[in-house]
Design goal:
13% strand, 20 strands, eight-stranded parallel beta barrel, 672 residues, alpha/beta, globular, seven-stranded mixed beta sheet
Length: 672
């Protein structure tokens, strides 16, 4: 469960709690921790990052400057407790080497080396060495830290950087923060107390159309570790062994890939959740079908899976798949379907999950997975489903306009439990999204949802690498929704993609500014997010629309030279963005985005040429203006003919970007 908002931020009382905990633990030699800097301050979106604190994504619950930066040079000792796993140790070593250490010696607690210039201590937050290091750096820690939480402190003048946690995941996430606080030659002198608001955070590969490749999934799992997402749900609709052929064992080569994915997930502290969707053909009353279901789950359990989902989405409850179900549950319908699903899911929880060590509570997707209005189906499921089973929910619609705390509260009442959000954004597999790459901000999700949701997973696009833009926003929101700023997270996504993907260090300062700006321009052109009917819940090209409105205001007000100069500057940014992105952004993002980059090439040239036409007309060169406008119209026509990649996008169609903004301006400009 999420921690109440009042306890999520830690002020001066944290030091008192820590001191009491030390006494209770028998650490009576520990001195009382010093006063907390800024005790009692309530941070919000407008106050992060605090002065002198590098930006960290996801946004920490509390981060403050403690003093000067810590120099990194020469030999560094990395002292780790046994619970700190190998991937965390390896990442910490990479970070320290790239920050400037000539040698990193990894050892467990014991006497220090005399020739080390810096000690980096990672371990149990209550270990004496960790406690003393936190105190020496002027920082305290709450007690206890929740799951996946960590405390970090570094301050110039001290020879120790300290990271404390209660579990391996917390240590790993602390090192992910360290990699953003480290830069060549130094580690920022800051203190952090941090933990996630939502216990489940990630993505569900639940779209229709071309599933991700194995390489794309491997890359996604590594990326989730970078941004502290801890869940991946394997549920691609077009994998036949997930849905149509659910009874059949995975072929050996496919099962081998699943095992590799499980290992990759574990290395990055991601829960690999295996989903099996039997609803199209299962006979609920048939013991053989129930055993087939358990056998399929057992096969992946034996491979290392500990998280399971049995979804019943996108099926009909107006018919049974066998006559025995009618005899057992009655005529097909909402209530009968709810009873049948509740019975089989509860049996899976009791007879499989409960009998398998380390298996987490079963997840499910209801057939009525959106809205919160009560119904015979919801009543039957609410009353019959084992209370431990986690139900997923998409909001007040399949593609919701917004997701509010009130909506989540109503959904919890309808399902008789807190729900797990399946967020259908940025998925682009429905008719209303034809031709679109959805690169807008993770917006219209209300702060406070961390109190009402079990977790939040986004359903991404067929384009895996491009989905990272929204996934970064979702990671930031699920980690700290109280202080979430959608625009800040959107800018962070551009910086992430503008940073060398091979680098261990990823401070915000490492991002290439020109590539970051080009990506932000490209995101804006592709920011429109449609509802199921194609109408927008996020508007098209808001920054371009603002620039055009600013131009029109100046033009109509008589300052036409300034209006043209301002619009020309942004038009050139649009025209130049594709070249910059192709040259400097990650190759997989470029490949995913290529049709939209080609369209931007043409639309950008059309916009620049339109401005040229307006300038020529202002200069009295009417014939030149007409020629420029004709060229712009031809470029626009060609841009509208660019198609998405066949087989890679569902549905296939012409590329659409900034429509209703860019196209309208190019066509209307000759009449201004």
């Amino acid at each position: 469960m999420a921690i109440p908002g009042a306890l999520r931020r830690f002020g001066g009382s944290a030091a008192i709690v820590l001191s009491a905990a030390l006494v209770a633990a028998g650490c009576t030699d520990a001195a009382p921790p010093p006063p907390q800097p800024g005790a009692g301050a309530e941070a919000g979106p407008s106050s992060y990052p605090a002065e002198g604190v590098p930006e960290v994504v996801p946004q920490p619950q509390k981060a403050e400057r403690l003093g000067d930066d810590v120099a990194v040079r020469g030999k560094v000792e990395l002292v780790v407790d046994p619970f700190v796993d190998e991937p965390t140790r390896d990442l910490a070593q990479r970070v320290l080497r790239e920050a400037g250490a000539s040698d990193v010696v990894v050892r467990e607690p014991g006497p220090p080396a005399e020739d080390a210039t810096l000690l980096v201590r990672i371990g149990d937050r209550m270990a004496p060495g960790v406690v003393k290091g936190l105190q020496a750096n002027g920082w305290g820690a709450p007690s206890p830290l929740p799951a996946e939480g960590y405390v970090f402190a570094a301050r110039g003048g001290q020879d120790t950087v300290v990271l404390g946690a209660d579990d391996a995941a917390g240590a790993y996430y602390g090192v992910q923060t360290l990699r953003q606080l480290a830069s060549p030659g130094r580690i920022a002198g800051v203190g952090v107390v941090d933990q996630p608001n939502m216990p489940i955070r990630g993505s569900i590969e639940g779209f229709y159309g071309s599933p991700w490749t194995h390489a794309e999934r491997m890359d996604q799992l590594a990326f989730y570790g970078d941004v502290k997402l801890n869940t991946y749900v394997y549920a691609p609709k077009d994998d036949p062994y997930h849905r149509e052929r659910w009874r059949e064992p995975y072929p050996a080569d496919k099962l081998s890939e699943v095992r590799e994915l499980i290992g990759q997930a574990a290395a990055h502290h991601v829960r690999f959740t295996f989903a099996l969707s039997p609803g199209q053909s299962i006979c609920f009353s048939d013991p053989a079908d129930f055993q087939a279901l358990l056998a399929k789950l057992q096969a992946v359990y034996d491979s290392g899976v500990r998280d399971f989902s049995v979804p019943f989405d996108d099926i009909s409850y107006t018919r049974w798949n066998c006559g025995e179900d009618q005899a057992r549950y009655g005529a097909p319908g909402e209530s009968a379907a709810g009873r049948a699903q509740a019975e089989i899911l509860s049996r899976v929880q009791r007879e499989f999950i409960d009998t398998h060590p380390d298996a987490r509570p079963l997840q499910m997707v209801p057939t009525e997975y959106s809205d919160y209005d009560d119904s015979p189906y919801k009543t039957a499921l609410r009353e019959g489903l084992d209370p431990r089973v986690v139900a997923m929910w998409t909001g007040d619609g399949v593609i919701p306009r917004q997701i509010t705390v009130s909506d989540a509260e109503k959904a919890a009442q309808a399902w008789g439990r807190k729900v797990f959000l399946w967020d259908n954004y940025p998925v682009n597999d429905f008719d209303g999204s034809e031709g679109r790459l959805l690169l807008g901000p993770y917006g219209e999700r209300e702060p406070g949802l961390g109190e009402q949701l079990v977790g939040d997973v986004v359903n991404p696009m067929n384009q895996a690498a491009a989905s990272k833009v929204v996934e970064i926003g979702a990671a930031d929101f699920a980690w700290n929704d109280d202080d979430f700023d959608a625009q800040r997270a959107h800018r962070a996504a551009a910086r992430y993609l503008a940073t060398d993907p091979a680098a261990a260090l990823r401070p915000a300062s490492a991002a290439d500014p020109a590539t970051t700006q080009a990506l932000q321009v490209f995101f804006d052109l592709n920011s429109m997010a449609p509802l199921a009917n194609g109408s927008p819940w996020l508007p098209p090209a808001p920054e371009l629309a603002r620039r055009i409105e600013e131009f029109r205001s100046g033009w109509d007000g008589g300052d036409r030279a300034q209006a043209l100069n301002g619009l020309r500057d942004y038009a050139q940014q649009v025209a130049q963005a594709p070249e910059r992105i192709r040259a400097s952004a990650p190759g997989d993002f470029v490949a995913d985005s290529e049709p939209w980059l080609r369209a931007t090439d043409l639309w950008g040239d059309a916009l620049v040429t339109t401005v040229d036409g307006l300038q020529a007309r202002e200069d009295g060169a009417g014939q030149v203006a007409d020629e420029r406008f004709a060229v712009a119209a031809d470029l626009a026509r060609r841009a509208e003919q660019v198609q998405t990649i066949p087989g890679e996008t569902r549905p296939q169609g012409p590329v659409r970007l900034a429509d209703g903004v860019l196209d309208v301006f190019v066509r209307q400009a000759p009449r201004l």
